[in-house]
Amino acid sequence: MIARLGFVVGALVLAAACGKGREDAAPTPGAGSAAPVEVLPAAERVRAETACDAFVAQVCGCAERDAATWADRCHMAKAMPQALELSLDVAAHPDTTAQTVGQLQRQARKLAAKCIEDTAALAVEGCR
């Protein structure tokens, strides 16, 4: 899981870096294709960010009480909101193609679902 998350974050960083340096007029996201694709609606983005932030807060709160058990998990959890933000930022970039926007939207939704699922699993694992 750690390697997969690292790969996703790395791929998103690479995609973001490829578009840097072009500061033209700001067309809509996905304008690189025939049919522009809307980035996630604001309400969905807020829900996703809130879910990932809550996961980090809960697991890192447990790490404060029991570092031996939760410190590594807290460290890894902090990558989830960053990966989510990066996915959404790259999707909103004007040079991002509609196909890539769609892929990044799916990735953002998967990350949000993972944050929700992992938060629910923390109670079962003894982190409350």
Task: Describe the model.
With 128 residues, the protein is mainly alpha-helical. It contains five helices and no strands. Helix 1 (2-19) runs parallel beside helix 4 (79-92). It starts with a helix and ends with a helix. Mean pLDDT is 80; it is low at 11-17 and 20-27.
What's the helix and strand layout?
Elements (H helix, E strand, L loop, with lengths): L1 H18 L22 H24 L1 H11 L1 H14 L5 H27 L4
Give helix % range: over 70%
Provide the residue-averaged pLDDT. Answer: 80
Elements, N to C (H/E): HHHHH
User: What structural class should be given to the helix and strand makeup?
Assistant: mainly alpha
Radius of gyration (CA) equals 16 Å
Overall outline: elongated
Please give the alpha-carbon distance between the first and last residues.
23 Å
Main β-sheet: number of strands, strand sense, barrel status? none
Total helix count?
5
| Number of distinct beta strands | 0
Q: pLDDT under 50 segments (min length 5)?
A: 11-17, 20-27
Query: In percent terms, what proportion of residues is strand?
Result: under 5%
Question: Short summary of the structure?
Answer:
By secondary structure, this protein is mostly helical. It has helices spanning 2-19, 42-65, 67-77, 79-92, 98-124. Residues 11-17 and 20-27 have low confidence and may be disordered.
Structural descriptors:
mainly alpha; 128 residues; 5 helices
